[in-house]
Amino acid sequence: MHIPDGYLSPATAGIMYGAAAPFWYVASMRVRQVLTGRTVPVLALFAAFSFVVMMFNIPLPGGTTGHAVGGTLLAITLGPWAAVIGVSVVLGIQALFFGDGGLLAFGANCFNMAIVLPLVGYFTYKVISANSEATSTRRLVAAVLASYIALAVAALLTAIEFGLQPHFFHAADGTPLYCPYGLNEAIPAMMIGHLLVACPIEALATGLVFAFLQRTHSSLIKADVPAKKEGKIWLLWGALGLVALATPIGLLASGTAWGEWGADELKDLGLGFVPSGLDRFAEWWPAPLPDYGIPRVGAVIGYILCAFIGMALVAVLLWLFGRLLIRKGKDPTTDQSPSGGDAPHTRSNDFLSKNLSNITHALESVISAEDLCRAPGLLQGLDARIKVLTVVLFIVVVGLVHSLPVLVGIFVLILALALLSKIPLGLFLRRILIFIPLFTAVIAIPALFITPGDPLATVGSKVIITEQGARSAGLLVLRVTDSLSFGILLVLTTRWTSILAALRWFRVPSVFVTVLGMTYRYIFLLLHTANSMFLARRSRSLGTLSARENRRWLGQALGTTMAKSHQLSEDVYLAMLSRGYRDEGLALNDLTLRWGDLLWAVLSVAAAAVLLWSNWL
Q: pTM, whole model, 2 decimals?
């Protein structure tokens, strides 16, 4: 039922995108109201189920194949609008990564399978199961019938979209430009196979899963309440993993789904020509894993691996998307009905709470860094000048090294130093990983493809990753990671005033050191000022404020903060002059060299020499 590129004209594809766009918008707005931190994993689970169930190809009359979708089941458990989002993400991943369906035809595929199918299925289910208990037989019958009818309607729409192409888009001599089969051929071919085989399989799969949920997770199918994540949801993930292991059964079905033939298959079917649109648009996008296969891996293993890769992509993308859609300020650990229970927070409170939380987190981060500088660790006890020198030395070594194993060894050394310095490994890694993508992604990713050399991996027939490109990207990422890690290690184990004193000892210009010192102090001042302003605003806010009022207040707050900062800087400068400041900052920290500092310097030089020697081997 997936429509590939080349079977729909660009005009039809554009119309279908336009038809799907309003539903995507409404779905994102509706889901935002009910989706919570507990229901996002459930959405990811059932969307992953939809991805896996589509991999089970079913033989249809005429030598073609079909598949179930699972959209009705998702609509029943999480609501129709969540199903629109979930199945759309599944179809997007199938088109992008596995070449199943087309990017140009993505709007049409989503309209048929991610919009019409779950909406029709949910409406049918609600009509049949009205006023029945969650565990009643009528609910089960409703789910089975709804899934059958919904898939049949989606198949009919797909057949109509196929069949209209030769009537509206053809050459002067009547030769079809896109799909070559008219309504009189498309509708019977699609509907006979789906009504007799694919729809019953969809109904059977929905019924089995629904009956299982009735016995074990009945809260997922209660009427008029959002589904909740239960404590044993991981059991459902385990069951889905077992289903994914059985996906190679789908390889047993010979033939291709109706309307998904390539140019060569059309010739084999006796068509006698290849439509020009199909020849122009088909396979223009080089999917990384076409037809759910992995190069140099057997068909069965590759199919299973692709199933798990697809499940992971669906789960991660829907989790990220769900987190973005969760209503701001709503507690992600509690579920609230949209029409009852505790009243949701107002937008004003959401705005203030979020910013207040961010500012407080920033203050705590700065204070925790100061606390780490006083911890009884290895690097905290060294003289600041020695630490600055050794960090600069190791950064130079990192720049000279061109061996990937040596760079990895340096990073392992850095992690060992962090542990010996009593720095929590999670905190240290988070500070590194925040900046690595910003410094490396723009350069490292293009380097994979534009660097000439020996092919390492081929994506489709056009994009080639070279060994030299992969090596260049790896060197860049590791060098940036190691250099940044050394800098963070220095900052987390050395008090800021000691770093400034060391810089002055090395004759760094006084103006530069003074600016650094005042900037650091202003961080605390501005954070405290902003925190106080947000608390004052929050304590005086009643009711809901519009987004426009929030933006106006934020602009006023920024202006007030800047004015206060300017006035405070003038006062601080006059106070410094009155106390004898003459363009020369005075460090309050006494720097004293000890034998341990000298021993560290010697060991650092020796380690640098060993690293360079290992690189040259």
A: 0.54
